[in-house]
Amino acid sequence: MLVGKALYLRGGYLDNTLSFDEHGRMIGHSPQGSYTLSGVQIDKVHLTKHKVELDGARYGLHFLGALPYEDPTQAVNRVRITPKKKVLKITIDRELVVTPKKKKVTELKEKTKAGAPAAPKAAPTQATPNEVAEGDVSKTATPAATTGSAAAPAAAEATKPAEVSDEDQAKAEMAAAPKEEQPADMGSVTTTTSPAHATKVLKDALDKIFAEGLDERMMASMPDFWKLYYQAVAAKNDYRPKDPAVLRQNMVDKKARLLSKFEPQSNDFAQANGVAGMCLYHTVIEADGKPGEISVARPIGFGLDESAVDAIRKAQFEPAIKDGKPVPVMLDLVVQFRIYSKRTSVVSKPEDKPAEPTLPGPYTLQNLPPKQ
User: Fold this and answer.
1) What is the per-residue pLDDT across 153-192, written as a single tens digit (0 to 9) for each?
2) Are residues 214 and 227 part of one domain?
3) How many CA atoms are closer than 13 Å to the CA of 227, on its beta-carbon side?
4) Which of 83, 211, 249, 260 is deepest in the core (most CB within 10 A)?
5) Whole-angstrom Cα distance, residue 307 to residue 90?
6) Kind and range of the H or E element at 91?
């Protein structure tokens, strides 16, 4: 099911060591990021009674400049971002299968039938007082007979082991297992007597953790700017704003323009793997000058699109004007990400001399339109 396949890690967890309970819920906390940093490939699977251990590597998606009406799957690279000497480790707890207990009554009957002596002969139907007395004396004087008949079941009942519940049995088994094979969250593990049920629970957990492609649940978890991009991809057309009142820049008397500089930051994954380049975003600039709907037009991946969109939302714009009134328009914004180096960290003022630039730094090309 898993080994060698290109999968996505639902939730975008970025830690290299992840633990999930038997229902596929995250145990503990992990920073989360873009789905473009959530590609995984599982190389090894180790199955124990209490958990599943998966070893693999994380992959980033680097888009190579395809437009929405082109096939993005043919213009993207999967780049391994887990260092060669490190590994992505994922553990998933398993529902514990306990052995069904035999019925105690049947077990006791079998033991009694196998170990109890034959019953004594019945006393005569008619007996003289002397015989009765003699019989009483003989019973009193022969304790072995009493021990062999009436005392045997009582002894068996006294030595009968206390009944152990499935929960106690499970706790004992988990505690007795080697530490490396114990589940991550022993308190939440449930038990079953059905191996088929335990298998179904495990498969459901895997489906909650991994996706083989961009299925409906993956799409539903994405931010709107990715949803709009993939809607355009599916339609094999360019993005169109949802609001039909949004105009284009060539339809207004005065175009909207960017007033402030925005500097989306790169990240360690992109810097370590040399991911840089131009990316394009369709942005609706509302009549009040604030950015509204944003759609990726030409993505770059590696979590950089999220950084670019966040910077766009914080930027300041002058709205477009038509017939003397501000109107909403669609503005295309180009952002360039660069690889950090001492040469690209030159500051705008010569007198500003920082001791050492800190990663990540500004890597965007500032293309501000001339003032009109």
Assistant:
1) 555 555 555 566 666 666 676 766 666 667 777 777 788 8
2) no
3) 12
4) 211
5) 27
6) strand 88-93
Percentage with pLDDT > 90 across the chain: 55
Whether residue 325 sits in one domain with residue 231 = yes
CA–CA separation, 280 vs 225, rounded Å?
12
| Cβ-contact 63, 28 below 8 angstroms | no
Beta partners for residue 247, in sequence order? 329
- Listed residue (12, 10, 14, 1) closest to 82, CA to CA: 14
SS3 label, residue 131: helix
The one-letter amino acid at 297 = A
- Tell whether 89 and 133 lie within a shared domain: no
Phi, psi of 368 (to 5 degrees): -85, 130
Host domain of residue 78:
6-97+168-218
pLDDT in tens, 189-243: 788 889 999 999 999 999 999 999 999 999 999 999 999 999 988 888 889 999 9
pLDDT confidence of residue 333: 94
> Scanning the structure block, which residue is given the tokens 């991550």?
184
* Residue 207 located in a structural domain: yes
- Global pTM reads 0.71
Number of independent structural domains in the chain: 3
Assess contact for 333 and 281: CB atoms under 8 A. Answer: yes
The answer to the question of residue 343 being in a domain is no
- Whether residue 31 is found in the same domain as residue 92: yes
In this structure, the answer to whether residues 147 and 180 fall within a common structural domain is no
What number of residues does the chain have? 372
Do 87 and 14 fall within a single domain?
A: yes
Rg of the chain, C-alpha, whole Å: 37
